[in-house]
Amino acid sequence: MPKVCILTSVHPTFDTRVFHREAVSLAQAGFKVTLIAPYEKLKDLKNKIKIIGLPRYKSRALRPLNHLRIIALALKEKADIYHFHDPELMGVGIILKYLTRKPVIYDVHESYPDMILIKPWISQKLRRIVSELVRFSEMVTARVIKNIITADPETKKFFDQYTQNTEVIYNFAKLEFFPKIERKEVKSPITLIHVGAMLEERGIWVILKAIAVLKNYPITLILVGKMQRRGLREEIIKFIKNHKLQDKIKLIGQIPFTKVPEYLRKADIGLVALQDVIKFRKNICTKIFEYMASGLPIVASNVASTRPFVKELKNGILFRTDDFHDLARAIKELIATPENIIQMGRKGRRLFEEKYNWRNEQKKLIDYYKKLV
Predict the structure, then answer these.
(1) How many CB atoms lie within 10 A of CB 130?
(2) 119 pLDDT band (50/70/90 cuts)?
(3) CA 58 from chain center: how many Å?
(4) Are 324 and 295 in contact (CB under 8 A)?
(5) Across-strand partners of 256?
(6) DSSP state string for 84-101
(7) Under 8 Å CB-to-CB from 79, ≥6 apart: which residues?
């Protein structure tokens, strides 16, 4: 069996893409998989995947201490293919390429140079410089290791300039994580849900202000996900209190991915409020496919990455990105027609089953690996 060594210094051990989608799929296909990742145990075995734990560092400045560990542990594995998931491991990937002469894959989850431009912990004066440094590093990495996987076609276009061996592996949801739900009616109050990281650029304030506008309508909102900025949770709680929305909004916070389907089953409508920044014109929002998998119609901001999966598939409604009044309008339009909630949700589920699920991406991943072997 070909041996695969997957590396991450940032993502959780059981990250959705790293572990549940890619590592598990490779193990099921017969590859011998080792995952080196931050973990509380030194060694473990899950889903036929050997896990080697790294120390967890809260400080970003200390994370590079793991890079030498990763190199040593990866070399010890004597893998046939190395597969890393973080931009900070580009140097590690290049070193492994030269020391082992084995195929190395850089898995690019999103457009990192664009992501840097909205990082709250980086000074605005430095963001452009850091962004260009990351872009240059990715160009060098692509030319050296050759093998690139991305999660969207726009990011792939950048790497296509420097290597011919690129592949898009979309972050579609797995069928087995989302059993089919037969929704026959919509009960009052209608439940809206937003799943995923919360930040200004992801439209959290647009959503909250829209709910404030609709406070007299029979709706509730569930917010599930991590706060991406220090102090944001306190600001949201203050907003909820000031606008007397305590009975309208449930602030759940971050939960394990395996628990997400439970909350989606309780909802009637899924919200996506990405703002029109360059990152979200390229990177596709994975919650769209989780909403589709759960049979939810989608109310989404009108950005380039969401438009093809909502407007063109006709399984939801778009609103003007930064206009909370227009979001409130879209929600009112949908809740006024419960039959559309059911029909759009069913259409999304059908499209998920037919095309937008991990089964198709799994085949692409395995075929890509077979070429390298």
Answers:
(1) 16
(2) confident
(3) 21
(4) no
(5) none
(6) E--GGGHHHHHHHHHHH-
(7) 3, 4, 5, 34, 100, 102
Please give the structure tokens belonging to residue 29: 């296909």
* pTM of the predicted model as reported, rounded to 2 decimal places: 0.90
Residue by residue, what is the 3-state secondary structure of the chain? CCEEEEECCCCCCCCHHHHHHHHHHHHHCCCEEEEEEECCCCEEEECCEEEEEECCCCCHHHCCHHHHHHHHHHHHHCCCEEEECCHHHHHHHHHHHHHHCCCEEEEECCCHHHHHCCCCCCCHHHHHHHHHHHHHHHHHHHHHHCEEEECCHHHHHHHHCCCCEEEECCCCCCHHHCCCCCCCCCCCCEEEEEECCECHHHCHHHHHHHHHHCCCCCEEEEEECCECCCCHHHHHHHHHHHCCCCCCEEEEECCCHHHHHHHHHCCCEEEECCCCCHHHHHCCCCHHHHHHHCCCCEEEECCCCCHHHHCCCCCEEEECCCCHHHHHHHHHHHHCCHHHHHHHHHHHHHHHHHCCCHHHHHHHHHHHHHHHC
Domain 3-171+357-372 sits in which CATH superfamily? Glycogen Phosphorylase B; (3.40.50.2000)
> In which element (H, E) is residue 172 found?
none
pLDDT of residue 258: 86
User: CATH 3.40.50.2000: which residues of the chain?
Assistant: 3-171+357-372, 175-354
pLDDT exceeds cutoff 90 at 124 = no
End-to-end CA distance of the chain: 10
pLDDT tens for 63-110 read 889 999 999 999 999 999 999 999 999 999 999 999 999 999 999 999
What is the CATH code of the structural domain delimited by 175-354?
A: 3.40.50.2000
What is the Cα–Cα distance from 53 to 35, expressed in whole angstroms? 8
CB distance 207 to 327 below 8 Å: yes
User: How many of the other CB atoms lie within 10 Å of CB of 99?
Assistant: 11
The single-letter DSSP state of residue 162 is: T
DSSP annotation of 217 reads S
